[in-house]
Amino acid sequence: xxxxxxxxxxxxxxxxxxxxxxxxxxxxxxxxxxxxxxxxxxxxxxxxxxxxxxxxxxxxxxxxxxxxxxxxxxxxxxxxxxxxxxxxxxxxxxxxxxxxxxxxxxxxxxxxxxxxxxxxxxxxxxxxxxxxxxxxxxxxxxxxxxxxx
Length: 149
What we know:
The chain is built from three helices and seven strands, in the order βαβββαβαββ. It is of the alpha+beta class. It has a single domain (2-144), classed as Gcn5-related N-acetyltransferase (GNAT) (Aminopeptidase). It has a seven-stranded mixed β-sheet, sandwiched between helices. Strand 2 (43-49) and strand 3 (52-61) form a beta hairpin. The chain is globular. It holds the Pfam family Acetyltransf_1.
């Protein structure tokens, strides 16, 4: 397994984001209805297994201190192997390298596995922020990143 940086325009990243959005629409019963695409200002990481990208996630700057973890997704056939946990750690490292002292993220109340992952990795619930304010299906989390002594 390899975790590498990929451009927002990378075809494998775009395919993973499309699969993520499709799965989210199915999981929330069509409650959201939005289709989100990749963004040029998100720095993506891809998890590559046997030459194929099987997972992705990104970091987008919210401000100088905070980054947002975006588009975390692992193909269903690769779940349960610890890939999401390793990808999340790599995304936190990327956010740290970008100068962020904390990261935030949003997930859905209808995604208990995601909520479990984030809480088990030290994320604390926070009030909804930005575009998630007022969405009854959004649950938001934050984590302070370690500071070098």
